[in-house]
Design a protein that fits this description.
Largest sheet: 5 strands, mixed
Helix content: 10-25%
Number of strands: 9
Shape: elongated
Structural class: alpha+beta
């Protein structure tokens, strides 16, 4: 896998949030032109993107803010059993510390932190704009 794409309203807010998770901003750019619309099917699109790399260097998240055309739908607050992409899961070293830091960036715990046997502590959070993120701390 090269990257996961997430469409957001505020690129700066999303960059700060994922930066707190340890992702590093690789770069920002505006994508437009004939080639761009031929890939996505949105001819005439103009999109500001930010590419963020995971700490291990093996994965990336592409954050996109559509300047034109405007967003056509909003799936950010769909329940976890809605069809389509569910969430991105991040491995963290200290779940409690990560939750504290992400709360300062607007994250809200979906329900509660749970322990899966003696292996993981897990939770789902809603980040900026309601983006669903999973967090997992290996304990065993």
């Amino acid at each position: 896998m090269d990257n996961v794409g997430i469409v957001v309203e505020s690129l700066d807010t999303a960059i700060a949030f994922f930066g707190e998770l340890g992702l590093e901003l690789e770069g920002r750019a505006v994508m437009e032109g004939d080639w761009s619309g031929r890939v996505t099917g949105l001819h005439g699109q103009r999109v500001e993107i930010a590419m963020m790399r995971t700490p291990d260097g093996h994965g990336r998240i592409e954050l996109s803010r559509y300047l034109t055309p405007p967003a056509a739908a909003d799936h950010r607050t769909a329940p976890v059993n809605a069809l389509g992409y569910l969430r991105v899961m991040f491995a963290v070293d200290d779940l409690d510390d990560t939750l504290t830091r992400l709360t300062e960036h607007g994250a809200q715990l979906v329900e509660e932190v749970v322990q899966c046997e003696d292996v993981y502590r897990l939770c789902y959070i809603r980040g900026p704009e309601g983006i669903l993120i999973g967090l997992a701390e290996q304990i065993g």
